[in-house]
Design goal:
Layout: H1 2-23, E1 27-29, E2 32-34, E3 41-47, E4 49-50, E5 54-56, E6 62-63, H2 65-76, E7 80-86, H3 88-97, E8 102-107, E9 116-118, E10 123-132, E11 147-151, H4 155-161, E12 168-172, H5 175-183, E13 189-193, H6 194-204, E14 209-211, E15 216-226, H7 230-245, H8 248-270, H9 273-366, E16 370-374, E17 380-385, H10 395-398, H11 403-406, H12 409-425, E18 429-437, E19 440-452, E20 455-462, H13 464-478, H14 488-498, E21 506-513, H15 516-523, H16 525-542, E22 548-551, E23 556-562, H17 566-581, E24 584-585, E25 588-589, E26 592-599, H18 606-643, H19 645-664, H20 669-681, H21 691-694, H22 702-708, H23 711-720, H24 726-733, H25 755-770, H26 781-791, H27 798-809, H28 813-821
Parallel strand pairs: 3-7, 3-8, 11-12, 11-13
Antiparallel strand pairs: 1-2, 4-5, 5-6, 8-15, 9-15, 10-13, 10-14, 10-15, 16-17, 16-20, 18-19, 19-20, 21-23, 21-26, 22-23, 24-25
Transmembrane segments: 6-26, 275-297
Domain GGDEF: 504-634
Domain HD-GYP: 625-820
């Protein structure tokens, strides 16, 4: 009776598994398992050059640990496995394109898990660094700044790339190529998985190479499928559980990997030869002690020999008794043989039963689902789950209760209706529902299948993550990440949807930020992003919740409003402009140019409406833009002077000195006014320089000075955005050029440097010398003039230096020189 109950239990469990697999697109058939495409054939790929895991032997046949394991898993699940080997990156591309169904061996990483779904691990291995035999590495830190050969797409390559050791990686397609480049001295290091590297060294005869034993990135090694292929993932996990439970996995592992792990162990022993020498000394001591003990044993043996002779006499007596017992034993032997045969038959039956139960248990444990059994009244008859975290109450408390005892009323009624419908139709029923589990809202899907006329199997899966991921993807696909407004894709789809007669008049309003590029160049892109976010906030406040606002370009926004006339659009624009007038980003005002157009005729092309609105916006931008740029320039100057008060006084003095020199040189009133303004703005580019560098009390480092040298180019970009400052921008760009051509940024020589820039160079240097600096003493005007003369012809225009000294400063240079020398 006991064996009968075991077989009945086996049949019931098999039926449960068959029903479950059918609920997820897999049909259990006699002798095999068929997938959705009505075929039990799957294509498994791997790396063609990755022994001992996967490779092609001399006869052109796929071989290796991964290949043998894939075939064993397929056989356990009734699948026909076709092996396809290729270069590793192409194998991954084939899986992503659906050309193959699975990869038999892939290392896990969080980045790869975004693309692939992994089975439970079937092995754990690590990488290592391979070098010439004479090379010894203490740690991975020894590779800082070095060049390392890696296999393209391998997990070791990914690990070294993210190690922040400034390692330069040389990618090749195979392990053999990487080791060959180290063997011939082209490179000193190769970063590879340990076992493929050891295998290749032996196969290729690289006796001059060695592995360092660094144990890089020990990682799970699993089978992988596409993330959307959960059915195949389920089958592979079940197959792995089966081959592990039956011992077949260990046989495959020992055949392909065991021998290399043993050799790797012997190589690691060589790293500790000093320890072995000490151990050898201890062995010598132990041998000496052994000899001494042997002497004591010999002495004791002589004493025991006499006792042994007495025991032999006793043994003779026992032998006679034993002969009498042998006759009785022959009778018992015949009986024992018959019992043994019966016992063997019982054990074989129990073994088969245990294997079947182990397979069934492995499949259930691999499932991420909860399996319920209901009667027609919605009462829980049974519950099986590998993870009990999703149960409302423990299994023992759940069995015997009804749906209404466990779930909210509406949900319990929906579940009971689905149970009855499944029993009536004899087909699969499914429904989704939400539950609050430990204070968190979770989403589940239940699939119901009739098992008998009075029993229903319900398989429940937590789909919260998939649902939320789907909602997040939908949100991101239609939203601009910076502003949170709709993006261009959503706008274009919505434009097509609203372009109907019932939505006429259909108003389209274009909005463009004024001066965004100038703000990005002056204050950085973070400030520009803040400006765009502020504009999005103003537009949102100025519109109703149901009106569509989208960002369709870098600084371009569009409003799409059904049923709005041109007069109403003008009123909305005025309202938004008033809101914008109250907003600033730091010291910069928010300025927006608008243009709008209204479609009133259904036959009118919407693209033409869009173009007219855009043209209108750009017309207004031509009038509003210059004013905004001028305001922004003033804001930049204010911000710079707030960052460094010394810059404000310095700019004013340079402006006055430059104007005086221009007047002496006979410049026109317009040019004098221009150079006065240039003196005020010549250091405007310092707005983008770190405030700590500008205000540093001591001398600048070489890196800090290189940062300071960027300010002429930054100033040029800022001023060149204003039409009437284009010439001035050129002069600001050149005011640190030197007469001998060693200046920056362009290295201009002599009179190729604009006159205005040569004037600013002299007045800027003069004021810097007579002004207070924390890192040097302040020079007198006489000493500063002498320094100008010393640098005339190298740094400064010699003619302008003489005019500046004699006509502007009014210094008697010769008397000054004599006075200084005295």
């Amino acid at each position: 009776m006991t064996r009968g109950r075991h077989w009945v239990g086996l049949v019931v469990v098999s039926m449960l598994i068959a029903v479950f697999l059918s609920g997820y697109g897999v049909t259990a058939m006699p002798g095999n398992i068929k997938l959705n495409n009505n075929s039990n054939r799957i294509v498994v790929g791997d790396d063609i050059n990755y022994p001992p895991y996967s490779y092609v032997d001399a006869d052109g046949n796929p071989q290796g640990f991964n290949i043998a394991l894939a075939k064993a898993v397929g056989e356990a699940m009734g699948l026909t496995v076709e092996i396809r080997l290729d270069e590793w990156s192409r194998t991954r591309e084939a899986l992503e394109a659906g050309e193959i169904d699975a990869i038999s061996g892939m290392f896990y990483s969080e980045e790869r898990a975004q693309t692939y779904a992994y089975t439970t691990r079937h092995s754990v291995t690590s990488g290592d660094i391979f070098t010439q035999s004479a090379t010894m590495l203490d740690s991975l830190e020894d590779l800082r700044g070095q060049t390392v050969v890696v296999q393209k797409g391998d997990i070791v390559a990914e690990y070294l790339a993210g190690a922040e050791l400034e390692i330069q990686l040389i990618e090749v397609f195979t392990v053999n190529e990487a080791l060959s480049l180290v063997a011939d001295g082209t490179y000193d290091y190769a970063g590879l998985m340990k076992l493929p590297g050891i295998y290749a060294m032996e196969e290729q005869g690289f006796s001059e190479l060695r592995s360092q034993g660094l144990q890089l990135i020990p990682n799970d090694y699993s089978m992988a499928v596409r993330r959307d292929n959960e059915d195949l993932l389920l089958l592979l996990n079940g197959g792995l559980k089966i081959v592990q439970a039956t011992g077949e996995y260990q046989a495959i592992y020992d055949e392909w990997l065991g021998v290399y792990e043993e050799r790797d162990f012997r190589q690691n022993l060589a790293r500790y030869h000093r320890f072995l020498m000490v151990a050898g000394g201890m062995v010598v001591v132990l041998l000496g002690m052994s000899l001494f003990l042997r002497f004591l044993v010999h002495k004791r043996t002589r004493a025991l020999r006499g006792a042994n002779e007495e025991l032999q006499l006793k043994q003779l007596e026992l032998q006679s008794l034993n002969m009498e017992m042998e006759a009785s034993m022959e009778e018992l032997t015949a009986m024992e043989q018959e019992l043994r045969e019966q016992l063997d038959r019982i054990r074989e039956s129990e073994r088969r039963l245990a294997e079947s139960e182990q397979k069934n248990k492995a499949i259930v444990q691999a499932l991420p689902d909860i399996i319920f059994t209901f009667n027609p009244k919605g009462q829980f008859i049974d519950c099986q789950a590998s993870d009990h975290a999703h149960l409302q109450m423990p299994t023992q408390s759940l069995v015997g209760k009804f749906l209404e005892d466990v779930l909210p009323r509406e949900l319990a009624e929906a579940g009971l209706a689905s149970i009855r419908k499944s029993l009536e139709s004899g087909e699969l029923e499914r429904f989704e529902y939400e539950l609050s589990l430990r204070g968190e809202r979770r989403i589940y899907e239940m699939r119901l299948v009739p098992l008998e006329s009075t029993t229903v199997i319900g398989i429940t899966r937590d789909i919260t993550r998939e649902k939320r991921y789907q909602e997040e993807i939908e949100y991101l696909s239609y939203r601009d990440q910076l502003t949170g407004l709709y993006n261009r894709r959503f706008f274009e789809e919505e434009l097509k949807r609203l372009d109907t007669e019932r939505n006429l008049p259909l108003c389209l309003i274009m909005a463009d930020v004024n001066g965004l590029k100038l703000i990005n160049d002056s204050f950085g892109h973070a400030k520009g992003d803040e400006l765009l976010q502020k504009l999005a906030e103003v537009l949102t406040r100025g519109c109703r919740p149901d009106e569509i606002i989208a960002r369709i370009g870098g600084d371009e926004f569009v409003l799409l409003i059904p049923g709005m006339t041109g007069e109403q659009a003008e009123g909305m624009v005025d309202r938004i402009q008033k809101l914008a007038a109250t907003e600033t980003i730091g010291s910069v005002e928010l300025s927006i140019s608008f243009g709008w157009e209204v479609k009133t005729d259904l036959n009118e092309d919407m693209q033409e409406v869009f173009n007219r609105a855009e043209d209108y916006m750009y017309q207004k931008k031509l009038f509003e833009g210059p004013s905004m740029r001028s305001k922004t320039i003033n804001a930049i100057i204010r911000t710079l002077h707030e960052k460094n008060e010394r810059e404000e006084a310095h700019s004013k003095r340079v402006s006055q000195l430059s104007m005086a020199l221009a007047q002496v040189l006979g410049f026109s009133q317009r040019d004098v006014e221009q150079i006065r303004t240039m003196g005020l703005l010549h250091d405007i580019g310092k707005i983008s320089i770190n405030e700590e560098i500008l205000n540093k009390p001591g001398r600048l480092t070489e890196i800090e000075f290189e940062e300071i040298k960027r300010h002429p180019e930054i100033g040029y970009r800022i001023l060149s955005s204003v039409n009437d400052m284009a010439d001035m921008a050129e002069y600001v760009l050149c005011h640190h050029e030197r007469w001998d051509g060693t200046g920056y940024p362009r290295g201009l020589v002599g009179e190729s440097i604009p006159m205005q820039a040569r004037i600013i160079a002299i007045t800027d240097a003069y004021d810097a010398m007579i002004s207070e600096r924390s890192y040097r003493r302040t020079l007198t005007p006489e000493a500063a003039v002498k320094e100008l003369y010393r640098c005339a012809g190298t740094q400064f225009d010699p003619h302008l230096v003489a005019v500046f000294a004699e006509k502007v400063i009014g210094t008697d240079v010769e008397n000054t020189v004599v006075s200084l020398e005295t």
